[in-house]
Amino acid sequence: MFFNSLSGRFLLLTIVFVMLAEVFIFVPSVARFRVDYLQKRLELAQLASLALLATPDDMITQELADELLENAEVLNIVLRRNEMRELILTKPLSASISTTFDLRDASAFTLIRDALAGFAPAGDKIVRVIGRPVKGAGLEIETTLYLEPLRYAMIEYGRNIFFLSLFISVFSSAMLFFAVRRLLVRPIRRLVGNMTRYQDNPEDATRVIKPDSKVIELRAAQDALLDLQTQLTAHLKQKERLAQLGEAVAKINHDLRNVLTTTQLLTDRIEMVEDPVVARIAPKLMKSLDRAIALCETTLSFGKAEEPAPEIKQFPLAELIHEVIEGEGLRLKNGEITFGMEIDDGMIVAADREQMFRVIGNLVGNARQAILVSGQGGDITIKAKATDAGTEILICDTGPGIPERAQEKLFQPFQGSVRKGGTGLGLAIAAEIVRGHGGSLTLAETSMLGTSFRIFLPDQSKSE
Ligand SMILES: Nc1ncnc2c1ncn2[C@@H]1O[C@H](COP(=O)(O)OP(=O)(O)OP(=O)(O)O)[C@@H](O)[C@H]1O
Ligand SMILES: [Mg+2]
Questions:
Q1: Which one of 427, 432, 453 would you pick to mutate in the ligand 1 pocket, going by the greatest count of ligand atoms within 8 A of its CB?
Q2: 235-303 sits in which CATH class?
Q3: Contacts of 330 (CB under 8 A, 6+ apart)
Q4: Where are the domains of the chain?
Q5: Does domain 313-463 have CATH number 3.30.565.10?
Q6: 131-157 pLDDT, tens per residue?
Q7: Is the pTM higher than 0.85?
């Protein structure tokens, strides 16, 4: 749509504004036109009355009087030269005088009002006009005339003004139209063109805009865009480099894990050597190797960037928790931790069983490690309840609480760990898996008396 474009809008608005301005000019100017018209009649009337002065006793024939009146386009004339003398040229009127226009001291308001009223059809109305004679030729001149010719003259004048205004407005809006196209539309198109070209390949630094406008506002827009594009291109390049680095790390990790696994097998043999020094060092070596392999594996799984989409199936929650507790229990040498469960046997949840096993395993594992570090034993209790919105699972322990340093970046990969040998990936991965289910993993509370984490899984049937 042409009128929805910037230049179209300008064209339309200029026509409207110029026409509006012309209305304000038209009203006083038509009043001026009417006064001039009437004044002209008075002057002609004054001229006609001069003929009367030329006669010795101010007397002329009726034919001459009629001719003089006709020339002046008036019906009769009264010229008051001084207090005593009056000159009169007259002929009988076809109708009575309907109104009087006194031009001597008329206010601007009266003149405008009478001019606007003058557009109304006048029929054969006759008016009296009073004014001052020119060149001080008398005190007052008065004449009567038909109103209709004045109305025609005003309409003619109005029409001329209208066409002139139309011409001016079309002409000026056309000029403005081209000015707007040159100054605004074209630069904006060029700016948008640059954005689109840049968008196609933001890493290509040659596509970054080169500010060249001399118009202050456009130059500011170009400069801002230049800033934005330069930063974005730099960020993209950095991101690409990081991705390449990540890939390299993943490859190194993979091969390193294989090397370590082989070393682990060899260490198994060393353990059989009966040398007391070897017997003392071998378990420590084994432990270090275990940790190194675990680090490689978790980093690798994190390097996959995202967990696969969960395969949601319904299963009894209590069974899964039993499995987790059983696995964790095997890692304990003495019975320093008691496991508890507050879950209805019949409770069913809809989630990816394998992924949930990892989430709960991670949380219970953290609790176990924390309690073991404290060296005082403790309890780990897993509770679950169904709420209106979904399922809530709480993993509570009576451990020493999460150290303040760890709390700040708890769910951020590689950041949250303060544990010796910990990688700081467990909670980040667990949180990502729960988010993948549309739920959330939060720290419910932590203090010297213990810690609890809350898993919330939304009701899958409601979220569909
Ligand atoms: N139940 C808990 N009680 C006390 N501290 C905890 C508990 N859970 C987590 N933490 C603290 O939060 C840190 C981050 O835990 P996270 O599982 O992310 O990493 P990690 O256990 O150190 O390493 P990873 O699990 O990757 O082997 C832990 O190092 C530990 O200090
Ligand atoms: Mg952990």
A1: 427
A2: mainly alpha
A3: none
A4: 2-171, 235-303, 313-463
A5: yes
A6: 998 877 778 899 999 999 999 999 999
A7: no
